[in-house]
Amino acid sequence: MDPLVSEFYRHYPHLQYNKAVESFISQTENRKLVEDFLRHPSASKEERLNEAFKAYYFDIRFTSYVSSSLYFHSVNFDKKIRKYSERHPLTLDDRVGEDGGSYVELVPDPASEIAPFTNYSTLMECLESEELLKAYKTLTDKQKHVLDLAYVQERSDTEIARMQGVSQQTISKTHRKALHKLKSILEKGES
């Protein structure tokens, strides 16, 4: 054991196994205070040593308090989030069928998914419903072309407008009218 530390513990035997005191003495500036007090003891040096130890011990306790407080707050936060997740699961996390799978497993991966109409050039080639096909044939050529670009080539109204050299509002109006016409024909059962 260090002679300075041995001397200190000879004067204060009740502090010998105290980890905080050992840690305090191991720091250079505190070691100088202890050495100065042991070489030339006085009430003012003892008071300075006590004040330094109180400040050091406060820092230890404060750090310990903050650390444990953060730990318990994080544990409580985790419990709170877990409880909320169990009570309010996302719709995609709900269980489906007997196998126990979830809806999220049924969602296709867009990276591996091929565009639905890549093998077709017009919407008419894609339609399987006879009623919808007859209704589609009643549209004007302009309406058919806008629907082909929108649904087969997956273009936005803005892209279609740029391609045709007209305003986006014109394409949007044509698109909307074509869909409305198809809807009304299908609802009435006309073709």
List keywords for this structure.
single chain; 191 residues; mainly alpha; Arc Repressor Mutant, subunit A; 2 domains; two-stranded antiparallel ribbon; 9 helices; 2 strands
Furnish the topology, listing elements before pairings.
Blueprint: H1 3-11, H2 19-26, H3 28-39, H4 43-87, E1 95-96, E2 101-102, H5 123-126, H6 130-137, H7 141-152, H8 157-164, H9 168-188
Antiparallel strand pairs: 1-2
Q: Quick recap of the structure?
A:
The chain contains nine helices and two strands; from the N terminus they run ααααββααααα. With 191 residues, the protein is mostly helical.
Written as H for each helix and E for each strand, in order along the chain, the element string is: HHHHEEHHHHH
- What's the main sheet like? 2 strands, antiparallel
| Strand numbers in spatial order across the main sheet | 1-2
**Please, what is the average pLDDT?**
86
Structural class: mainly alpha
Distinct helical segment count: 9
Helix-residue proportion? 55-70%
Count of domains = 2
How large is the share of residues in beta strands? under 5%
- Principal-axes geometry comes out as rod-shaped
Low-confidence stretches: none
From the N-terminal CA to the C-terminal CA, the straight-line distance is: 104 Å
Strand segment count: 2
Rg over CA atoms, rounded to whole Å, is: 40 Å
Organism: Rossellomorea vietnamensis
Protein name: Sigma-70 family RNA polymerase sigma factor
